[in-house]
Amino acid sequence: MVSVVPQELPVAVIGAGPIGLAAAAELVGRDQEVVVFEQGDEPAAGVRSWGHVRLFSPWSELTSPAAERLLAPTGWAAPNGKRYPTGTAWITDYLAPLAAVLGDRVRVGATVVGVSRLDRDLLVESGRDEQPFVLHVQSSDGSIERVFVRAVIDATGTLSVPNPLGSEGYPVSGETAHADRILYGMPDATADGNPCAGKAVAVVGSGASALTSLIALTSDEVHTPGSRVVWVLRRGTVGNSYGGGDADELPARGALGARVREAVTDGRIEVVTGFRAIAVEDADTTHYNNNGSDSDSDSDSDSDNDADGRVVLVSSDGRRMEGLDQVVCVTGFRPDLSFLSEVRLDLDQRLQAPAKLAPEIDPNWHSCGSVQPHGYDVLAQPEEGLFLAGMKSYGRAPSFLAMTGYEQVRSIAAALAGDLDAANEVELTLPDTGVCGGAGLFDSEEGSGGGCCGPVGPQPVSLGGLSTAGGLGGLS
Fold first, then answer.
1. pLDDT surpasses 70 at 223
2. CB 3.0–4.6 Å: which of 95, 177, 406, 444 could bond 64 by disulfide?
3. Is residue 24 within 8 Å of 13, Cβ to Cβ?
4. How many beta carbons lie within 10 A of that of residue 356, not counting itself?
5. How many CA atoms lie within 13 A of 244 on its CB side?
6. How far is Cα of residue 212 from the mean position of the Cα atoms in its chain?
7. Are 420 and 414 in contact (CB under 8 A)?
8. What's the confidence (pLDDT) of residue 441?
9. Angle between helices 18-29 and 402-416 (to 10 degrees)
10. 441: which strand partners?
């Protein structure tokens, strides 16, 4: 039998994104041992994946106080607080230096594939809380290492699990087979060989990330006389899909909907409502009924599109969106819970967020500005010593803020250090959006903006002179 004293072990942080690194900085500042596991080959690998995106948050809201204190002795100088960085600048000017200061506490190429208690699976109750956590960590060579820790902060975000095209939560027929024609996230007009430039593209989604994609696709770098941009909405009307407008306390983001509305009015964007996809297919002989089953059709009707390698989106009411070169799927993200199957969780059945937090972040009722400050006690799971933080704590809710995550991990670190007075003093004032969402786009790097980093995570992209901000700020 392995003999381990839990209190002599480090705290594990899963995910070396902005919130994970901030958690490590908080713990180091309280003289707590910590190890950070990052599945990518560099810290903040998730942010790197959308490095061309310019965030809505200014620098003043993108660095954590604990990280600044850790960086200060190195001669690091905080960037101009009024400026808005891209994801790449966020890494270069802050996240990479922070990871360097943390040193070998950060392990890259280390994927946590399981979290459990020593010698206990999910069923076993006896002596559970006295046992340390065991992290099953897979290296790039495929080998698995068991790492003992006393507590776990899961800051893995949601970027790695985009929602599919299907409105029922599952991939539609043909979605996997046509993966080369589907982009989950934002198109980058600056990339070589951009698959969207001058093409017929459908954008599926109704949030701010969809608005950002639409603006990107109608930019001069992408849109040509031969382009076709279709905005595909599951809902029956556009409704508030244009965003919060003047009600958004982040004016730059609020203006995004107005720009999309203008592009719709002048014909650069077609709008299709009430379209719930059930299939992606080649433009060939296979058609789908509204129950998803095959039906015969004229084998010659779409031969030209098939020759071009284009695809067709099919809706549950039988409509067919023909001749698409690319489908941009921006239908949101969800948390990866697969590696937490052997620990005890208390999650909301709908949002997959901590049950105590879910009522405060339900997008049916809340924007990011109406979320109440919350700390370790709200984020703690029934498995004592396990916390969900960052975008992971929001589950499927879209309106996460970077500064929310910084306050979350400050409270968690204080609790783990035994300072419950500090852990319970949670304070945070957030800007209201007018509606839920996260990503957006604005013209100038300078000017008034706010702190919503909002889906990912990742989400936004910047095309040429256009700046956007994504999801939860691309937090991983």
1. yes
2. 406
3. yes
4. 14
5. 23
6. 15
7. yes
8. 35
9. 30
10. 468
> For position 471, what pLDDT does the model report?
38
Please provide the distance, in angstroms rounded to a whole number, between the alpha carbons at the two ends of the chain. Answer: 36
Cα gap 54→47, rounded to integer Å? 11
- How far is residue 370's CA from residue 389's CA, in Å, rounded to a whole number? 18
If DSSP codes are grouped into helix, strand and coil, which group holds residue 105? helix
* 305 pLDDT above the threshold of 60: no
Measured distance CA(161)–CA(113) in Å, rounded: 15
Enumerate residues 6+ apart whose C-beta is below 8 A from 303. 283, 284
Task: Provide the pLDDT for residue 212.
Answer: 81
Query: Which residues neighbour 25 within 8 Å (Cβ) at sequence distance 6 or greater?
Result: 64, 66, 67, 69, 70, 98, 102
DSSP strand pairing (228-232 vs 200-204): parallel
200 strand-pairing partners: 228
* Structure tokens belonging to residue 421: 């007075």
Q: CA 251, 460, 64: angle at the middle one, nearest 5?
A: 75
Q: Is-contact 149 13, C-beta < 8 A?
A: no
CA distance 247 to 258: 13
Dist. CA 156–CA 112, nearest whole Å: 10
